[in-house]
Amino acid sequence: MKNNIVRKHWRWGLLAFFAILVGIAAIAPYATLNPANFNTATARYANESNVKYVGLFVHVFASGVALLLGPFQFLNDLRVRRPLLHRWVGRVYMLGIVLGGLSAFVIAPGIISGLVGEIGLITLAGLWLWTGYKAYSTIRAGNVDSHRQWMIRNYALTFAAATLRLWLGVLIASQLPMLQSKYGGNFDALFTEVYRVVMWLAWVPNLIIAEWLLIRRPSSKEHKLHASTIISLNDNTIMDSQHRRGAASDRI
After folding, report:
1. What domain range is 247 assigned to?
2. pTM assigned to the model
3. Radius of gyration of the chain from Cα atoms?
């Protein structure tokens, strides 16, 4: 039992660590309001339409808030001991999903990774909004188990904000030795090619892992059935043992 608790908290701690670390690191450059601190993919929005520029800030800050709050929604202690706080954190999280998802449709057209990247970002935004809606609608209907499943899927997509930057660093590092030979020393060309891949790699594996975890994770009904089966077996074992002792005493 103790090992299971430690293992579960260790996984949550790792998730929260990366969410907080990457979330703060991702938001910080935009908090300066200086495009010189943005990355190659987003600095260009400063020279485009005001709608896209505002959309970029809405997307970054709303998605960042969702990324930071998400792990705390999976804490059992918070749900059980502070249900009101859990609900309000969930509402702010969902607001982040709505604003972050809708603003993604604003900034996706013309992204530096081209049509492949546009489709990747728009698909992510659509699935993000849809899974968020399913998580919200199921809890409104009182289906807690289904709500948890949809929240796992939704946060897997939210966590794309973290995995995008992790994959970006890994792929850029792997391509840097070929900067001269393959890209003619043009770092922007290297970044654009890597970004095209990352717009899919950031969320598709996350969603696959989420589905794998859901397949392995028994539902609450299965938990109850398993528990009732064990109790029934234990009761039968106790009754059988008592019956045998009674029969033995009768023979004596």
Report:
1. 222-252
2. 0.80
3. 25
Q: What does DSSP assign to residue 73?
A: G
Question: Which residue type does 169 have?
Answer: G
CB neighbours of 60 closer than 8 A, spacing ≥ 6? 26, 27, 30, 42
Q: 132-146 pLDDT, tens per residue? A: 999 999 999 999 999
Distance CA 196, CA 194 (A): 5
Residues 226 and 213 in one domain: no
Query: Residue 90 corresponds to which tokens in the numbers above?
Result: 């969930």
Are residue 90 and residue 151 in the same domain, yes or no?
yes
Q: Would you give the end-to-end CA distance of the chain in angstroms? A: 43
Reading the block at residue 137, the tokens are 């609608």
Could you tell me the CA-to-CA distances from 197 to 127, 153, 175, 192 in Å, in that order? 18, 21, 13, 9
pLDDT tens-digit map of 27-54: 888 988 888 888 878 888 888 888 989 9
The one-letter amino acid code at 12 reads W
d(CA 77, CA 3): 18
Given a contact cutoff of 8 angstroms between Cβ atoms, the answer to whether 98 and 129 are in contact is yes
Domains: count for the chain: 2
